[in-house]
Design goal:
Length: about 375
């Protein structure tokens, strides 16, 4: 009976969490200081981290009245895959810092809500373990100087049924984050980079830290190398970390099926533009040819709808997932995603747009200063 009461208490506590800020506070209460800072922090003085969130508030809606909104359709198609609502789970590292089941819990939540998990190279469970959940899944890839290791990761992703490859293109090495420096962040004992700890004979918890480990990322990587990468398999390639029209065009030229407009959640180059501000130029350059996704600063269903109205196929959320994972494991992520889905539906209803697919750019306008 004690565990039943505990489960009921946990469920009641989750029911009281209704927005991003609630999940954030709940996660802060349970995470270690080092883990919390790792998830929360951005590069250097964190201007871009804050700007990502501010930028979505620089747009307002233009709603339509007296429209039949008795039935709302939030579904979307992203790189040929249908999702129940246009929110994917962004690739983020080290989910076992938040819950013992780690990325497995996150994948199961994605499956329950009818969306896609983009699994990080820097996962604390293997990509095979994520695949075993049966969740819709893409694989985010860092390209290593050891091209044999890179090839092996791609082959494992294909064998495990991942349906897209998402190479990160904005991370020649992990950015400098003051919080991690102060904490001397490393993974706790018993936790490892599960996808290649044996192959590399090291983990980020092994004493030198994640930034030193990332020196194994290939800093010579160019767009020509993505042609090599796309030749390793038939999976659609979706480069993540594109914020300029020129780079979006280069992605198309090397065969990308989509791009993710991203500045790595403000964790790489402090001074990068907010993704909401970068989205328009990328859409102008390639939006009719490939799917354009966006992440960074997405905090509510209104942010999601603004992004889709501007032309994005979908958004990805990262920190919201981590806070929910810490607050309640799989159930926490399911609740957070369910709330986002409901907010998207309500925003469409209030706008007078019954179908997500009917959103057009004229329903959002920049705020006049």
């Amino acid at each position: 009976m004690a565990s039943e009461r505990s489960d009921a208490q946990d469920a009641a506590a989750l029911d009281r969490l209704v927005c991003f800020e609630d999940f954030h506070r709940a996660a802060r209460d349970v995470l270690s200081a080092s883990a919390y800072d790792y998830y929360r922090s951005g590069a250097l003085r964190e201007w871009t981290l804050a700007e990502n969130e501010r930028a979505w508030q620089r747009w307002h809606f233009v709603r339509r009245s007296l429209v039949d909104v008795s039935v709302i359709d939030t579904s979307a198609t992203v790189v040929g895959q249908r999702v129940e609502f246009p929110v994917l789970i962004a690739p983020t590292a080290f989910h076992q810092l938040a819950t013992a089941d780690g990325e497995v819990a996150t994948a199961r939540a994605a499956d329950a809500l009818g969306t896609i998990m983009v699994n990080s190279t820097l996962s604390t469970v293997t990509l095979e373990d994520v695949a075993a959940t049966g969740a819709p899944r893409w694989f985010q890839l860092y390209v290593f100087t050891d091209r044999g290791l890179t090839r092996e990761l791609v082959e494992r992703a294909v064998a495990s049924g991942f349906t897209a490859l998402v190479p990160t293109v904005d991370t020649p090495t992990i950015g400098i984050r003051y919080a991690d420096q102060r904490n001397r962040f490393v993974l706790p004992d018993g936790m490892e980079l599960a996808n290649f700890a044996e192959a590399l004979g090291t983990t980020a918890g092994g004493g030198s830290g994640l930034r030193a480990f990332s020196q194994q990322f290939d800093q010579t990587l160019t767009w020509r190398d993505l042609e090599w990468l796309s030749g390793l398999c038939d999976l659609p390639m979706i480069p993540k970390g594109v914020i300029t029209a020129d780079d979006a065009r280069r992605a198309v030229d090397v065969g990308a099926r989509g791009v993710v407009v991203s500045n790595h959640g403000g964790r790489q180059l402090d001074g990068d533009p907010a993704t909401a501000d970068a989205l328009g130029s990328v859409l102008d350059a390639v939006g009719a040819e490939i799917d354009v996704l966006v992440d960074g600063g997405i905090r509510s269903g209104t942010d999601v709808v603004k992004a889709v109205a501007m032309g994005a196929s979908a958004v990805l959320v990262g920190r919201a997932v981590l806070w929910a994972l810490a607050a309640g494991g799989q159930a926490g992520v399911e609740r957070m995603l369910g709330l986002l889905r409901d907010e998207v539906a309500d925003t469409l209803r209030q706008l007078g747009v019954p179908r997500l697919a009917d959103l057009t750019p004229d329903v959002v306008r920049p705020v006049r200063v």
